[in-house]
């Protein structure tokens, strides 16, 4: 897992622009603390920062073929991610005569391109975002995995593009400045994540499942994967067995590493199942117990308050699952002052490059990942199981299902529309813009003639979650983990599993209305019965009044600066009214989101010197 950055321009000689490219690469040091490299020719500079995971000695990048810079035009790869079927691909390539210098999956990706050309991406199973420069054809490929687990950003400049794993790489180039597209900001604040867009004017994101190609014909975006609707003929028992088989294969593949690996274990169904499967893999290998980690808050046993959104604490279930599975379990406990520390909040902002934060959820995730990194370099996460298997409350809320908008907005918003400044709301047509985005997203969904109205609607809800909600969570996971040099792998994002479950009828996926019933059936016998019966409980947030007190104090300080740039976006009067709520009201992340977003917007606009266009 690594960070990439670079610059390609078919009309310029970039051989004297290495200092500009070096500045871009340096911003990726958090993603790749182990090594750095740059490779340049006349029209291309590719840079790389490495987090060594596989073939620690032999996987240096950028990687080129031929490797000698003096041997003529070469193909150069700057690669971030993991290809989990690299061993099978390596054997196929050997049968075609390829001789490998390393054990790395990077070389497999490079030689796969040399063998099969641009269509090689269809053969890759994994999470990846990479740049490949073919000097022979004067062609740049920017490639992103199917679900968008790994990011790639790019910006057009002159006759070429700047690119990087995060916006900060592009923003470090001296010819690029941070201006914000108000509509892009509305996209972010509306929690709708339009594929390919960012709030920064001129910066685009390679959409999931797409390849961006730059050559003498121009720049174009090509989609190589999308969610397709195909018939599902397996019965419930066969479906559950298939899900388990795919997950067992996926976890086995994703445990290939030359560095310490662990599992994130919250005590929920998703993380417990993955941890159990990982323990089984280690047992068959004759390895040590799997190490697992959970997060908790100091005093949470007394502060916690039950609610429909979060009915119970994680800790008892995580401990029970750890004992049942037999892991080496550790709890990272966070105190209130750690969550309110300025440096922690600033670290989250720098990781995101955007005002996209869910407050103490993001801060605690960052601190959790930082704590785990002291012991492990790779972690398995249950992220995306709710989107794939229909686990969220909004999948089962008739009002949310009927509503003509994104279903998660019935439960959470980054900022309520009424808290936006009237001028910003009018200029962006915020509600209309969000409605247009919803209609656009629905237009991507395929149906079969035999699908009845209920099946069609639930497939739409699933599609919306996978293409408009999941990317936000994957971005958060990527930025906050990679900011600490931790690689987090997400087995539930294996495209084979996503395709299979997406096409499974709703009544098989959630038999009798049981959320994630199909996954529970697949997990039977692997996790404690209490975990199978447990209600959905999201990532924990602190209920400590010290956190609320700190948040109120920050809002008061912000309101004391009436000329703050954030008030171009946020309504100061509406923000002030939030402070009239009684003490204890802001005991959950859902109620705090509006204030957290206002603070993040202000910090972002000041730190990044953002001009609102």
Distance between the ends: 35 Å
Average pLDDT, to the nearest integer? 95
What is the total domain count? 2
Structural class: alpha/beta
- Strand composition percent: 15-25%
Q: CATH superfamily of the largest domain, called what?
A: HUPs
- Strand arrangement within the widest β-sheet reads 2-3-1-9-8-11
Instruction: Tell me what the CATH architecture of the largest domain is.
Output: 3-Layer(aba) Sandwich
Radius of gyration: 24 Å
**Main CATH class of the largest domain:** Alpha Beta
CATH topology of the largest domain: Rossmann fold
Unreliable stretches (pLDDT < 50, length at least 5) are: none
Helix amount:
40-55%
Please tally the helical runs, counting DSSP H or I stretches of 4 or more residues: 24
Shape descriptor: globular
Q: Would you kindly provide a written description of the structure presented here, covering whatever features stand out?
A:
The chain is an alpha/beta fold and 613 residues long. The protein folds into two domains: 222 residues, Aminohydrolase, N-terminal nucleophile (Ntn) domain (Glutamine Phosphoribosylpyrophosphate, subunit 1, domain 1); 268 residues, Rossmann fold, CATH 3.40.50. It has 24 helices and 19 strands. It has a six-stranded antiparallel β-sheet with strand order 2-3-1-9-8-11. It has a six-stranded antiparallel β-sheet with strand order 4-5-6-7-12-13, with helices on one face. Strands 16-15-14-17-18 form a five-stranded parallel β-sheet, with helices on both faces. Helix 6 packs across helix 20. The mean pLDDT is 95.
């Amino acid at each position: 897992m690594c960070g990439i950055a670079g610059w390609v321009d078919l009309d310029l000689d970039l051989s004297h622009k290495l200092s500009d490219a070096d500045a871009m690469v340096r911003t990726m040091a958090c993603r790749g603390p182990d090594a750095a490299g740059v490779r340049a020719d006349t029209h291309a500079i590719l840079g790389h920062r490495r987090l060594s995971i596989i073939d620690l000695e032999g996987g240096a990048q950028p990687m080129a073929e031929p490797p000698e810079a003096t041997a003529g035009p070469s193909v150069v790869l700057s690669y971030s991610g993991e290809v989990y079927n690299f061993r099978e691909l390596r054997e196929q390539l050997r049968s075609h005569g390829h001789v490998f210098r390393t054990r790395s999956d990077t070389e497999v990706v490079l030689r796969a391109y040399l063998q099969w050309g641009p269509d090689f991406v269809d053969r890759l199973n994994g999470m990846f975002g990479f740049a490949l420069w073919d000097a022979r054809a004067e062609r740049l490929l920017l490639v992103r995995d199917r679900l968008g687990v790994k990011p790639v950003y790019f910006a057009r400049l002159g006759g070429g593009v700047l690119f990087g794993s995060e916006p900060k790489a592009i923003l470090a180039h001296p010819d690029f400045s941070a201006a914000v597209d108000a509509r892009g900001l509305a996209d972010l604040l509306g929690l709708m994540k339009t594929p390919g867009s960012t709030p920064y004017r001129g910066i685009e994101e390679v959409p999931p499942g797409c390849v961006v190609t730059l050559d003498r014909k121009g720049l174009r975006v090509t989609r190589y994967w999308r969610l397709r609707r195909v018939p599902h003929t397996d019965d419930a028992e066969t479906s559950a067995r298939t899900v388990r088989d795919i997950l067992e294969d996926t976890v086995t593949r994703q445990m290939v590493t030359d560095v310490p690996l662990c599992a994130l274990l919250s005590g929920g169904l998703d993380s417990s199942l993955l941890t159990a499967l990982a323990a089984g893999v280690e047992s068959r290998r004759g390895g040590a117990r799997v190490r697992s980690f959970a997060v908790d808050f100091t005093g949470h046993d007394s502060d916690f308050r039950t609610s429909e959104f979060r009915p119970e604490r994680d800790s008892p279930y995580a401990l029970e699952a750890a004992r049942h599975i037999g892991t080496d379990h550790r709890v990272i406990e966070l105190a209130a002052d750690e969550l309110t520390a300025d440096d922690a909040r600033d670290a989250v902002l720098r990781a995101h490059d955007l005002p996209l934060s869910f407050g103490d959820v993001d801060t605690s995730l960052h601190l959790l990942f930082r704590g785990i990194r002291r012991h492990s370099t790779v972690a398995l996460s249950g992220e995306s199981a709710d989107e794939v298997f229909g686990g969220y409350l909004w999948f089962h809320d008739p009002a949310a299902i009927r509503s003509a908008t994104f279903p998660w907005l019935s439960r959470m918003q980054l900022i309520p529309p009424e808290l936006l400044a009237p001028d910003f709301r009018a200029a962006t047509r915020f509600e209309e813009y969000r409605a247009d985005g919803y209609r656009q997203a629905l237009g991507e969904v395929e149906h079969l003639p035999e699908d009845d109205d209920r099946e069609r609607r639930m497939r739409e809800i699933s599609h919306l979650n996978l293409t408009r909600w999941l990317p936000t969570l994957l971005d958060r996971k990527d930025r906050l983990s990679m900011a600490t040099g931790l690689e987090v792998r997400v087995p539930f994002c294996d495209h084979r599993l996503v395709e299979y479950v997406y096409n499974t009828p709703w009544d098989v996926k959630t038999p009798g209305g049981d959320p994630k019933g199909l996954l529970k059936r697949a997990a039977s016998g692997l996790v404690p019965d209490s975990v199978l019966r447990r209600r959905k409980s999201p990532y924990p947030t602190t209920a400590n009044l010290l956190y609320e007190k700190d948040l109120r104090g920050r809002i008061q300080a912000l309101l004391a600066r009436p000329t703050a740039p954030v008030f171009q976006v946020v309504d100061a009067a509406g923000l002030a009214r939030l402070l009239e709520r009684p003490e204890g009201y802001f005991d959950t992340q859902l109620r705090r989101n509006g204030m957290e977003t206002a603070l993040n917007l202000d910090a972002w606009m000041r730190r990044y010197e953002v001009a609102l266009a």
